Amino acid sequence: MLYQRSSALFQDAQKYIPGGVNSPVRAFKSVGGTPIFIKKAEGAYIHDEDGRAYVDYINSWGPMILGHTHPDVLNATVEQMKKGFSFGTPTELETEIAQLITSVVPNVDMVRMVNSGTEACMSAIRLARGYTGRDKIVKFEGCYHGHSDSFLIKAGSGAATFGNPNSPGVTQGTAKDTLLAEYNNLDAVQELFAQNTDEIAAIIVEPIAGNMGCILPNDGFLQGLRDICDTNGTLLIFDEVMTGFRQAMGGSQERLNINADIVTFGKVIGGGFPVGAFAARAEIMNHLAPLGPVYQAGTLSGNPIAMRAGLTTLNLINNDREIFSRIDNATEILATEISKIFKEKGIANHINRLGSMMSVFFTEQNSITNFTDVTKCNHEIFNKFFHHLLTNEIYIAPSGYETWFISDAIKDTEINKTLDAVRSFEF
Ligand code: PMP
């Protein structure tokens, strides 16, 4: 049996951990079967407990842009550990990483480090509310901004995969301040502003969405949001947890040439350690404690080991900007070739891709631009495709509502192995 030890470990895990996992999508619930338990990872590969090595297109859901256990990040982090694990005091390292981030990310003067993307987005909307003195926010159907209460309303990612986009436990009082619009639909946003004049603190958006599968912003969509925000005294928050330091060193702001007012980060910024961050111009960040009244804090925020891993990762990328064209090209080859193979096989599909993020949708439609489009795709074929790839030691996200993340460790060997597996797919 391919997944014998994983299966036994999953049985045990379910006794002590809800669903056997510490984050829902890991449970393979929507695709069925046994989640593979991972023992170690190196470069482009993760190795499971049954001794199989998979080409990894999840890359810890985005952080491992350099591939796993990059030697420089490993060495720097181990050296840092020898100096102590956590101090709860300021360190020089935190200034170094903040300086680097503000020098490469457009339109931000200051950055505050937190421990996850959830915290970054949760804190960003508190700051926007404190800054504007308004309560409401606009979010888009199928976008995911972490699991804090305000965002679990028509949320993407696992919430969409499991059919619980609106989580019980979120009070109506909280939910009423989250206004919803369809992604890529500026008219819907205009309408919300017309109905809630001077009440909307912020629009939060994934500038390139990755949590309902990969959905690209239509031409003019983000600029339209920018204009609406400017007209209404509302802040534009780009959730760059997935896209930051992946779509470009300056994230989507740089790649798509649109400025946001607050930017949130996670994933790549921590190099695989639990880190998130939010950043903005000084006039906004000055409202944050201890300078201003908007409270935000964290026992382990700016943890030296996480900062060292993040700083080393960001420096490696910053000093080798060719990485972006390498991972973009690898992803383009995958997208083009997979599409060609499916066409030959007569399997209806549409692939969305920008940079090193992509999703394969099984559909007759020739564009997939919002959450409703994704729900109409054939998720049964996706599940078969997922299991076929897994059997062939190719690891993509176990849901049609997620994106592939390509790392710099994925080279021709891995791409060819992947395409061979796609070629043998029958449904
Ligand atoms: N925002 C986006 C765009 C994300 O993709 C995620 C996580 N996938 C989050 C926020 C939440 O980050 P975390 O899981 O680190 O809390």
Automatic annotation (TrEMBL):
Keywords associated with the record: Cytoplasm, Isomerase, Porphyrin biosynthesis, Pyridoxal phosphate
E.C. number(s) listed in UniProt: 5.4.3.8
Pathway: Porphyrin-containing compound metabolism; protoporphyrin-IX biosynthesis; 5-aminolevulinate from L-glutamyl-tRNA(Glu): step 2/2
The keyword Glycosyltransferase is annotated on this UniProt entry: no
GO cellular component: a single term: cytoplasm
The UniProt record lists the keyword Cytoplasm: yes
GO biological process, alphabetically ordered: protoporphyrinogen IX biosynthetic process
Residues carrying N6-(pyridoxal phosphate)lysine: 267
Cofactors demanded by this protein: pyridoxal 5'-phosphate
Subcellular location as annotated: Cytoplasm
GO molecular function: glutamate-1-semialdehyde 2,1-aminomutase activity; pyridoxal phosphate binding; transaminase activity
Coiled coil (residue ranges): none
SUPFAM superfamilies from the UniProt entry: PLP-dependent transferases (SSF53383)
Catalytic activity: (S)-4-amino-5-oxopentanoate = 5-aminolevulinate
Catalytic class of the enzyme: isomerase
Family, similarity comment: Belongs to the class-III pyridoxal-phosphate-dependent aminotransferase family. HemL subfamily.
Alphabetized PANTHER family for the sequence: GLUTAMATE-1-SEMIALDEHYDE 2,1-AMINOMUTASE, GLUTAMATE-1-SEMIALDEHYDE 2,1-AMINOMUTASE 1, CHLOROPLASTIC-RELATED
Subunit description: Homodimer.
Protein name: Glutamate-1-semialdehyde 2,1-aminomutase
Species this chain originates from: Faecalibacter rhinopitheci
Organism lineage string: Bacteria, Pseudomonadati, Bacteroidota, Flavobacteriia, Flavobacteriales
